[in-house]
Amino acid sequence: GVYDSAEKFAVDCRLVTSNCRSFYEGTEDGPVFMEKVNRLEQALQKQLAQLSSYDKSDKGAKAREKARTKMLTIKKPEQAFLQDILRDLRATTYTDKSAKITEKATLHFEKPVDTSIFTDYPKFVDTPMDLETVERKIGSDAYATPEDFEYDILTIFRNCDKYNTPKKNFHMVTLGKHTAKVFRKMFAQRLRPAERSGSVTKRAPVLPSAAAGKKILAGKKRPPSPSMEEKQPKRVSIKGPSRSNSGASKSVSSIAPNTAGKLASKSKSGGKKMAPKQSKITVTDPNAPIPMHVAIASIKESYPGRRQIKDLEGFEAECLKFLKTLMRHPWVSAERPKYIFHVPVHIIFPEIRDSYAAKIKHPMDLTTAEAKLLQGAYQTAEEFISDISRVFSNAIEFNKDGHEIGEPMSCAYYEAATHLLKYARWLSLEVLESCIVDCTESPIVERGSAPNWKLTKRNAEMARKEMEQTVFNELIDKTEPGDTRYSWHEQECDKLLKALMHTSDRKHMSFFIQMIFPANYSMYISKPIAWDLCYQKLRERKYNSIGETVADLRLIFSNALKYNEKAREVDKVSAVAYDSAIHMSAKLEAAIDRMLLAVGDRIGRERIDMMNTHRQQEAEERAREEAMKLQWEKEHPGTTMEVKTRLRITHRNNYRKRPTDFDLPFFDEEEDNEETHVDTISNAKALYETQLKKRAATRKMSIAIGISVFKRLEERAAAKAWAYQMAEKAHLERVRVKKEEEASKRAKAEEDMGKPKGSLVSVALESVDRKQIKLALDLKPMKSKKRKKLLTSL
User: Fold this and answer.
1) Helices 79-90 and 131-139, packing angle to 10 deg
2) DSSP code, position 278
3) Lesser CB count within 10 Å: N end or C end of the chain?
4) Which tens digits make up the pLDDT trace of 243-257?
């Protein structure tokens, strides 16, 4: 209600385009925006012209007069309403999918950011906001509308995204996005009933047509129409056969078809609605299959005295945890199971009741194992694991013959049970870690789908080794560099990297994020590496297998342990780095353990799904051939169509050819269809021509390489000759200088010999390196006798 006239509104609309024109005029991308501004001005001119003509008319004057008396009013939101939303938001939690850590979602957004620690925060964020500030503004009644409150809350999470995205703090970014999503949903759910109740009201101007002769009741919902009640689904209760009497009839109690969709009639006495009459349908055929949920309910009822899940303790609680994890497998999930292992086979497939009983002496299913566990029938965890393994080993044993002859259903269940048996062994040795014992006498299962196994340390080690070989040797399905979406192999590697960057481990990872090392680091470490380098290699698609990624991540912390092992005793920083490397190495191994089970299972599932797909394609091809044969015999009676028998072997080759300078043209990977003689000749001709082209290209490349090699050899020979010439010149110059020095010495010696020789004293005095003569005078008086002797000697 700010505009009191249409002219002011038109002025502001024109101001939008003029501001855009003045801002982008003369810039690099100005022409693009100028074109958009011109289109916007053309559209505005038409709309504003219509608005101006309406405003000047009598109809517009009357509407303007009525609008002056009825303005838009918005009540302030109540403080209790906003405080309830804030309280529920603070109670939100977040669970990290990779690290499996649950934390309070709003813990990092409660107080203002400390700029003394995060000194660059003002460079990224212009409007800081936190939950304490929001709470203070609620107490001071500063929010005029609920939208103001919503804007402040969302500002907190926008600031988090602005600051942490350039810092590569992915955990904080994910945490902010999760909390913002929770708040939007919560705010929308709370705002609707608040507006209906009147605590938050938006009262719009009342139009003349709506106000004339009509009363609108606010805050009341429209009663549901009979048609809506008719569309509600009716609950059906089905009682299946008990385990004691499998041949008993099944009674089905449900709404009769002729009464579905009709309203209940009123009784004569009270006039109240009565429920529709129910009719019982009795199924007497003992071989008719029943729904799986009915069978599960009947199995559970046949085991009375079952305890609650919360009452299980010790190994039973661990076994139930293992079973729940196994039941979440995509193939056996209770919501949409792909293969049925939940109930006895004869209930779902009654047509094979006799053959199954003749072949399998100890049947077992997952629901029976769960019911026995809740009843307390197992004394040890190995007894429970034995029953779980029997579920899948029975399926393998029963479908073995059908798998050998290629029966589709038998093949599918045989391969699925083989994989699930191996997956159950891996899962049990990981989840039931507290039940594992150190026993050297029990048999060891090295790999594959063993029908039974013991919970021993040796088996756990062999299972981990098998998972590592399966996962680490898996080649990555690479996407194009720069693509924002990863393949699932690359996503698993990305999860490993991000599992090390959790907020709680930030102080430990500060030593290993960037390629910043001491000056003497290369003297001890031959291959320096950091988290940033691993992340960059993953984004550039340089990893060929999952094992290469894991090896690089392990190398980060092994390098730190090797470098700081001796220096930690004298240097505090080295000691902290050494402890951080130990801590993060344990975190990495825990993340690898979680990845091994999930990725190993997915690799096996994809292989089996691919084999099932090929098998289905073969069945469709055989069906088409049979249809063609029948059609031929129908059109040409008395003749038969020859069908060539074709063997097709399909398997998955784990080896993925790495990129080279050229590909071998005679390597054919996919040869599925039968070819005629003409097609074979044409393909051979095309292949020969391709080979000729490749050979010509190879010959051209070889000639170019040979020419470059010979040029380098010539340059090398010329360089050697030039070096020899220069060395010879230098040698001759040294000989000449030496001869000149010797000649000058001889000339000087001859000149000295020609000079006249003086006394020896003068020669000695002319000598440069002569010794100094010291004279000492004794001034003591001499005795008379000595003086006489001295005088006589003189």
Assistant:
1) 160
2) E
3) C
4) 333 333 333 333 333
